Amino acid sequence: MTPFRRLATTLVALTVVASACSTTSDAVPATAKAVDVTNWSAVVDAARGQTVRWYAWGGSDAINRFIDETYGPELKSKYDITLERVPVADTVDAVNQVLAEKSANKDPGAVDLIWINGENFSSLKSADMLATGWAEKLPNAKLVNWDDPAVNKDFGVPVDGAESPWASAQFQLVYDTTRTPEADLPRSYGQLKDWACAHPGRFTYIAPGAGAFQGTRFVKQALFELSGGAKQWTTFDQATWEAQQPELWSYFNELKPCLWRNGETYPKDENELHQLFANNEVDFTVTQAIVGPGSLIDEGLVPKTAKAFTFDANSIGDYSYVAIPSNAAHRAAALVLANLILEPSRQALQIDPANGFGLGYAIDTSRVTDEATREGLDAAAEKRGPAAAPIDELNRSRVSDGAVEYQDLVESGWRTNVLGG
User: Fold this and answer.
1) Per-residue pLDDT tens for 270-288?
2) 65: which DSSP letter?
3) Are the CB atoms for 117 and 320 separated by under 8 Å?
4) Are the C-beta atoms of 27 and 114 separated by less than 8 Å?
5) Residues 6+ apart with CB under 8 A from 158
6) Rounded to whole angstroms, how far apart are CA atoms 108 and 128?
7) What phi, psi does 17 have (nearest 5°)?
8) What does the alpha-carbon distance between residue 306 and residue 291 come to, in Å, rounded to a whole number?
9) CA distance linking residue 191 with residue 220, whole number of Å
10) Where are the beta strands (DSSP E) in 324-406?
11) H or E segment at 366?
12) Which stretches of 106-225 are assigned E, i.e. beta strand?
């Protein structure tokens, strides 16, 4: 599940995308989009009758259904807003749409809201194509812990009020409790190398690169451990990278002969790794879901005895967000939807695996003042089931992701020094 990838590469020929993809039959003049988010009643009034076009990764039927059923009916009944979910194969498609409209001077544009984070957010922010100053002013923004660097920085890029969090996720490994005793689980990259070489061929990881952010994240976490921690990587410094990368590639090259197929080939995505795990070819797979592998079990993709765990430290956790392009035609409706996403009742629905989403809260539940509502959030979290990693384990091991510039350095460096080394 990923709105995370990939970075828009060029504006060349993107005007073709704009002309082919941009359809705004009910577009409104750009001047009509100006709304004061601090005057919420005026925002709600302006949004009535609008259609909010939400561009979101469409690769999961369960998530698509969750979006349609969780937000669509309430938007219509309470606000007279029509939700039009626009599925994209990769979030970069929505990014390229917005950048193409900028190149073509198209205002208003086709996109009202994007499910986004990471490089895609950085790309649009750098292009000055995101509405700013609104996220921390939403009525429900008071429930968000904006002091948390995992919230106020997206891959090291300051959010600056240009996106509002939707859900949290965290990198975890998944094991089969019938194959591997909990006491034998590796809890660091150092222990993992020892384990893999003691069980040759029983471990592999996803190749870092396009469409496989889990593989990139796996390598970055090793970088954090080997260099003494994650904090120094939240801002970009080329000299730090040059000094630390040799030890990183040495680690993975030492690990390589102990891997499945001797590290000559790697799974290209999480689905391939899930299949190897389910076929008992390897003993670990991965998940980002706060509910662990619960939904994977329900779909029959991994054994019923699968369970998630983390290393003791350096487990990258982050947030996915929604952002509003600066040329959005229906900004008021987008603001109403972004606020609805933070509603505690909607947040409680998203963590329940039965609803097909299974990601963590974007809000800080301790900031919910109504006791019954807070108890409802706690009860929803308990529905994560026995396959989920303990919440205290997740919290103890979580660190923020590194600066966005390290993403391509890790991927290209791994291809050169490990895959081709």
Assistant:
1) 999 999 999 999 999 999 9
2) H
3) yes
4) no
5) 152
6) 15
7) -60, -40
8) 12
9) 17
10) 398-399
11) none
12) 113-116, 153-154, 157-158, 163-170, 172-176
